[in-house]
Every structure is written in C-alpha cells, then in structure tokens.
Input
Amino acid sequence: MGCGSTKVAKNAMKKITHAEELKITPETFVLSNPLSFQEVYRIGKSLGSGAFGEVRKVIHRDTNEARAAKIFRKDLALSEASKQKLMEEINVLRSLDHPNIIRIYEFFEDTKRFYIVMEQCNGGELFEEILKRQSFGESMAATILHQLLSAIAYLHGKNIAHRDLKPENILLEERGNVMNIKLIDFGTAVKIEKGGSIRGAIGTAYYIAPEVLMGSYNHKCDLWSCGVIIFILLAGYPPFDGSNDEEILTKVKKCSFSFKNQAWKTISQEAKDLITLLLSPASSRISAEEALKHPWLDKRMKNIDVSPERVSQTINNLRTFHKSSKLREAVSTFITTQCVSLADTKELREVFKTMDTNGDGKLSKEELLEYFTKEMGLESAQEEVGRIMKEVDTDNNGYVDYTEFIKATLDDKTMNSAGFLKRAFNLFDKDGSGTISALELKKILAGGDMCEEAIWAQIIKDVDENGDGEIDLQEFEKIILSKI
Output
C-alpha cells in the first residue's frame, strides 16, 4: 500500500459539470505526501508511545512550524487488517472540522513506517492535569465537559462513535489552561448508522460503558465515558474502581456508583444530576445534544465572557465576506486549514463557540440570526443572514462550518501573508515549473470526484490575465490579494 498511490475513500457522487459544483473542504488538502518524511520534517522529542509506535514533536523544515506526528512501525503492524484500520483512522480525521478535535495535515509512508501529521498541543494530556490538580472546580470542569460534549455531538451528527474517550485522549492546547481542549486518537472510531449497533469490546476499563461489555452497543457508549470523566474531574477518583480490571468491570456492569464520599458534599445537585443521566443504562442515557442543554452546563457556560467588540468585528467580517473564484476559494481553504496557527485563530474560535449556542460545532441560520438581530433588527437580519449563508456556506450543507467561519472572518493581513501565499502556490505547482496548469489543479482539487475536463481549464481561464493557459506567481498573488 504505497502512500503515494493510496486512494482515500469518498462517497459516490454525481459527475460534476460546472466549477461551481466543485466542493472545496478541509479534507481536500489532507493529502498523501510523496516525499520522504524526513525531507519535510525534523523529528524531535517523544510525546508518547503505544503498542504500534509513538507520537513525536516534529518541525517543518521550510516553515519551522511545530507539529505532532503519529508514527507507526510496520514490523509491529504487518497485517492487512492493521493497514486498513490505519487508513480508516486517516479517513475519519480528514472528514472532521471542529475547534475541539485535533486537525490532521498530511500523511506519509515509507518502507518501515506510516506517519500521520497533526496539530501539536503544548499543554499535554488532561490526565496529567488531573494528577497535578487532583480535582477541578465546577466552573472549570463544566468548561472541559462542554467542549468535550460539543466534539461528541459533532461526531455523532456524522454517525461517528469515538469509543475510547478518556483523559489520556484529551489534550490541552496550552499548559495549565483548560479553556481549549483537543480530542485525539481516532484509531478505534467507527461509523454507526442511525438506529444501528456494533459489536466488539473496545475501550479502557475505567471508562468503558456496560453495554460494550454485553456485546452490542451504539454511539451512546461515548456519553457514558463523558460521565466517568466529569465524575473524576469533580471528585478526583473514578466512579468504578478496583484493584484490577476484572473488579472494575464487574462494578461497571452493575452501573452502581454513589456520591457518598466527602468530596461530593460541596458539589452542586445539578452536577450530580447530569452525571446520573450520563452514567445510566443506554436506553435511558441522554444524548450529547441533551447533555449540552443541561442546567449545570447552561448556567456556567453563560458566564464565559467574549469581548462584545470582538463579536461585533467578527459579525462585520461575515457581512463583508463574498464568494470569489474557485481558485481563490481553494487557496483560502488551504491557508486556513494548513497554514494559520492555533494562536492566529484563538479569538475567532472563542467567538465561534459563543455563537454556536447549541454546541454542535457548526452555525445554523437560527444561531446567526440571534446575533444579527441584536445588530440590525429582525427583518434586516433575516435578509442579511440569508445572503451570508449563500456566500459563506461554500459546501452548501445548510450550516457555516468551523473552517468556513474562520475563512470568512480571519483578517486579511494573516490570510494574505506572503509566506502563506507562496506555500499555496507551491502546493499547486507540482512540477516546480513556476506556473500552475489545469492538470496540476486537477491533481489537487479533484479528489475522488468525477469532473468534466473542461472545468479545470475554465478555472484557469477565469483568472488568467495574460491568456497563456497557466497561472504564474504574480498572477496568483494578484488573484488572492484583489479577491478575484
């Protein structure tokens, strides 16, 4: 299975006959890199290890950016099933676009190893923070749980179950700061269609749901794990404990836990109620969407302050954003997902999460309307939001997704950085000739879609000033800077 020729699974689609129908998403640019991994990255310190390999800090040689690489040794995972599982993990990660889920950049393969390159978070595992703090206050615990449930609601909305939620698989973006977490490790993630179920006992003893042990379960197994995590954050010990896995799993099967420990005397009844709703049999366990509406979270999340000026500025950026050429859309998506740093988007992410009132990781018309009505009144807001949806919702799924939001609201100075534009140009200029051809566009943007050949020539023609059928760097920069 050569990474240079690995085909990533795509949903069957009708043949695309017009450039406007071509969907450019973050997934478009998560590609197999044909170069040697060590040509592109310097390998740094180990960030963790597992049965099949390790995670290391890596530095991009050209940009000096720090990232994390999940490295799998082939001699420890030789079976076809293991290889298939790895590609499934890559496919799941490629499809995800949420502020609290780790972002994947690219992947490599050589004769000895597979490499998956992702965001690097400097704060370490939530597990380490638990060991250091012992327990968290209710406000801090609610902040963590809200982000985790938002990620889970988003996954479940895409019919994906994570199946191994635990503090070791939750990273802090910055050391000691729990305001921004990232969910990682999708090696056991699986699609479970609505109304369907799956078999196979996967998970970690402390966090595994009882129905998983019984042999048939669905996505609600993740909600049980969330219940265990919030129990530990508040009390400093697990609800189901024992001297070995067998003792722990016996207690899990009974769904028996209590709040009798001294630690619970100062914890609110609302917190206990939410935990009880999560640590209940699957048939009565609440969903992620329901948990996000629980009074314990609702009350505490309303206290999170985002500057009104920052919200107002972001709304204004949404109002002034306009669709442009398909090439500029592609470049903007590439820069937003592959170039800008977590620091560049930190404030915008907070605004996004504030506007995402139901916490599902995307903005609906109704959520946008709530904010625009405050600015201009209902009638004008309805008209404005309708226009924004047409301009910003470039994949036409009826929502403003996270990357669409960042792309529309990021300041021009960051988006139009000369370094970012050169990286984008080099991405398309596959042969290093100094110009971009229709064939090179096709290699990057077509993915698994069936597209008529004329589309690529048309995309070039729309922005080709000198009419030579190709785009040079000067034309490329003018396209982006002039918002053609």
Summary: Confidence is low (pLDDT under 50) at residues 1-13. The longest strand covers residues 41-49.
